TrEMBL record:
One Gene Ontology term from the biological process aspect of the record: anthranilate metabolic process
Pathway(s) served: Amino-acid degradation; L-kynurenine degradation; L-alanine and anthranilate from L-kynurenine: step 1/1; Cofactor biosynthesis; NAD(+) biosynthesis; quinolinate from L-kynurenine: step 2/3
Descriptive protein name: Kynureninase
Residue stretches spanning the membrane: none
Entry keyword annotation includes Transport: no
Gene name as annotated: kynU
Species of provenance: Christiangramia sabulilitoris
Cofactor(s) the record lists: pyridoxal 5'-phosphate
Post-translational modification N6-(pyridoxal phosphate)lysine, affected residues: K244
Family classification: Belongs to the kynureninase family.
Length: 429
């Protein structure tokens, strides 16, 4: 499609957009009385208008039913999490039995490593990407030390080539082969939080299995963003937070995937609690643990219902719209943003560079822009002008126009604000 950098053209794209009505289903913060242009759905998604109702229902049930709410609330609490499995399974390409909601992301990754990082003999190394999200680095390092290894030896990082912004699949595969039978686990962020690069999860998973390692994915930036086929790719485990693209609310519960081949096996090591026990017998308080024959066996505590209510509200919207429609709009709106950025770049004479892959198959909703000249001043100016982006050292702003609620006109408008910011003298020095 031939794009144009004009308001009329952007408005026309909005008119043709089948998802445009969903914009009105979210609450936008305001700056100077105007709704913001929100580019940080990759950090904290906007609040769906239905979220409040779902929370209010729980508060009301709690007031009116108290403990009886566990069984007699309209959405009973004892099995509240079960309302997520089928819908979440569609988002991540899994079977409903392979998916559940529990804890928070880093906690889940730790718990999953109890099952899937079991170093022994020669096989004790973990392969991950260099400059992984800090929480993942701390998590992996502490796990390795917990098992008595030295992180410098046991953690093998995949590196980018000098002068390149993104990882090459070939380099990942080569590293996996090289570590070979010393490799216990491959654990990578499926979508890189800094650049927005999407890893070839299917190929990498296969390569990990070929050397006899487990393969897990941190899908914080992938869930609700890109197409995932966790079952088909034969991934061993994965976890994601829900407050980014899934719009569930700050710090909310994490989703996790455990391949069905590990269900119903009594001997898999796992930290256990009563919420993983056979649900028919959960309240009998028997001494011996009987795992649910699903991912739910990994659940430990009873679910934080109040937190999960807005997640459920949001997930129902995902079920209604479906990932294919979101991805179709995502590709178009990101391509339009990319076009607008290039147009502005020409007009102001080259001052920034998009470091996210240009290939649509290797990126999702996010474009990361390296600012050569302007830096932090420009970021500040954008925030004050009602463009909410985020800043990552040394000089990158991340722009993620979530297809659920961002408009094509937002992209055009952003371009105009950006141009003005760059041309304004104060921000150039
Ligand atoms: C956002 C993010 C996290 C956050 O972890 P929490 O446990 O939810 O605080 C972890 N890893 C990655 C890759 C992330 O992008």
């Amino acid at each position: 499609m031939q794009f144009e950098n004009s308001r009329e053209f952007a408005r026309q794209l909005d008119k043709e957009d089948k998802l445009s009505k969903y914009r009105n289903e979210f609450i936008f913060p305001k700056v100077n009385g105007k709704e913001v242009i929100y580019f940080v759905g990759n950090s904290l998604g906007l609040q769906p208008k239905t979220a409040q109702k779902y929370v209010d229902e729980i508060m009301k049930d709690w007031a009116e039913l108290a403990v009886e709410g566990h069984f007699y609330a309209e959405k009973s609490w004892w099995d509240y999490h079960e309302r997520f499995s089928e819908k979440l399974a569609k988002v991540v390409g899994a079977k409903p039995s392979e998916v559940t909601v529990m804890n928070t992301l880093t906690v889940n990754l730790h718990l999953l490593m109890v099952s899937f990082y079991r170093p022994s003999g020669k096989r004790y190394k973990i392969i991950c990407e260099e400059k992984a999200f800090p929480s993942d680095q701390y998590m992996i390092s502490s796990q390795v030390r917990f098992h008595g290894y030295d992180p410098k030896d046991a953690i093998v990082e995949i590196k980018k080539r000098d002068g390149e912004n993104n990882f090459r699949t070939d380099d990942v595969l080569k590293k996996i082969k090289e570590v070979g039978e010393e490799c216990a686990l491959v654990l990578i962020g499926g979508v890189n939080y800094y650049t927005g690069q999407v890893f070839d999860m299917e190929t990498i998973t296969k390569a990990g299995h070929e050397v006899g390692a487990f393969v897990g994915w941190d899908l914080a930036h992938a869930a609700g963003n890109i197409e995932l086929k966790l079952s088909e790719w034969n991934v061993d485990f994965a976890a994601w937070c829900s407050y980014k693209y899934m719009n569930s609310g700050p710090g909310n519960a994490s989703g996790c995937f455990i391949n069905e081949k590990y269900h119903d096996t009594k001997d898999i090591p796992r930290f256990e609690g009563w919420w993983g026990h056979n649900k028919e017998r959960r309240f009998l308080m028997e001494p011996e643990f009987q795992p649910e024959p699903t991912a739910e066996a990994w659940q430990i505590s009873n679910a934080p219902i109040l937190a999960m209510a807005p997640y459920l509200a949001s997930l129902e919207m995902f079920a209604e719209v479906g990932m294919p429609a979101l991805i179709e709009k995502r590709n178009k709106i990101v391509a339009y943003l990319e076009f607008v950025l290039h147009e502005i770049d020409k007009e102001v004479d080259s001052s920034f560079e998009i470091i996210t892959p240009a290939d649509q198959d290797q990126r999702g909703t996010q474009l990361s822009v390296f600012l050569h000249g302007e830096g932090r001043e420009l970021f500040k100016y954008l925030m004050e002008a009602g463009v909410i982006t985020d800043w990552r050292e040394p000089n990158v702003i991340r722009l993620a126009p979530a297809p659920f609620y961002c408009s094509f006109e937002d992209m055009y408008e952003f371009g105009q604000i950006l141009k003005k910011g760059i041309l304004t003298k104060e921000t150039i020095q």
